[in-house]
Amino acid sequence: QITPTFKISRGLFIDKLNELKNNAEDLGGVVTSEDIKDAFKDMNLTKEQYDLVSVYLSNAGISVDGEAPASENENQEDVRYIDMYLQELDELPKIDDDTIKTYLLRLYNGEKDLIDAIILAYLPKVVDLTRLYIGQGTPIEDLIGEGNVALATVLNSLKTQDDFQNADDIIIQSVMAAMEEICYQDNENSALGNEWSQRADTT
């Protein structure tokens, strides 16, 4: 399975995804396909992207169309790992969105020592984003690791005022792109390994 490429705003996509998840939790942890379509009706998602939404919700413990969430199936170990990781991060000091925006502005003005604080603020988002990619053949630890590297890299690459004004979307795009890339590479390596194994079996 290869992750679908996004040609939409990933930041907006994630905002709508979180809103849908929160609404589903308020309704007892259930959602329907129609609810999903309604939530993303203005974004022209492809079928593969709608499927990815369902995967994310399932991996977040939400039942989609009556199906058991991933916490009750073969992905339950990864889901538990994410939940435990988020619980640990929840014990760290909270940094709200307004403070993050202030930090980003100060970073733009040259206060490079704030990068670590901004990374810390985004870590829960990075971990939560891995729910999109569970079950694609890449270990959850690798997904988190690639996401964290992408987070640090993009923060060090922001240069212009426009970059900083759109920093959240740029960060989310970079983290998701890094996770998609490692999933793609792992799928390619797996396919290559299977091909060599089959050749060995026929010689």
What is the count of DSSP helices, taking H or I runs of 4+ residues?
Answer: 9
Strand content: under 5%
Over the alpha carbons, how many angstroms does the gyration radius reach?
18 Å
Q: Ranges with pLDDT <50 over ≥5 residues?
A: 191-203
First-to-last CA distance = 29 Å
**Secondary structural class:** mainly alpha
Number of strands: 2
Biggest sheet layout: 2 strands, parallel
Q: What's the rounded overall pLDDT mean?
A: 83
Amount of helix: 55-70%
Sequence of strands across the biggest β-sheet: 1-2
Helix/strand order, N-terminal first: HEHHEHHHHHH
Shape: globular
Summarize the structure.
This protein is mainly α. 67% of the residues lie in helices and 2% in strands.
Name its key features:
single chain, about 200 residues, mainly alpha, two-stranded parallel ribbon, 2 strands, globular, disordered C terminus
SSE blueprint and pairings:
Elements: H1 10-26, E1 30-31, H2 33-39, H3 47-59, E2 63-64, H4 76-90, H5 97-108, H6 115-129, H7 140-157, H8 161-165, H9 167-201
Parallel strand pairs: 1-2
Helix pairs in contact: 1-9, 4-6, 5-6, 6-7, 7-9
Describe this structure in words.
This protein is an all-alpha fold and 203 residues long. It contains 9 helices and 2 strands. α4 packs antiparallel against α6. Residues 191-203 have low confidence and may be disordered.
